[in-house]
Amino acid sequence: MHQGGEGIYTGGSTPRANKHVRNMIIEASWIAIRTDPVMQNYYKSHAGKNGKAVIFKVGRKLLSKIMAVIKTEIPCSSGVIY
User: Fold this and answer.
1) Domain range enclosing 68
2) How many C-beta atoms lie closer than 10 Å to residue 4's C-beta?
């Protein structure tokens, strides 16, 4: 994560990341775009772009949702934006 001025840059997945966890997040992203309306809309909004790159973006969004559930201790529900 880099912060400068008013912008915050959070880097993507790197090859140094745990590959097993990364693979699980990607697989969960495929499930999320089939079941969660918010993730479906996000995936469709990036239609026409590199599919693998979009799945990484969905995975990043899914990780944000997971972190929000962990921090707030509120159960996750489908269709809710965190």
Assistant:
1) 18-82
2) 7
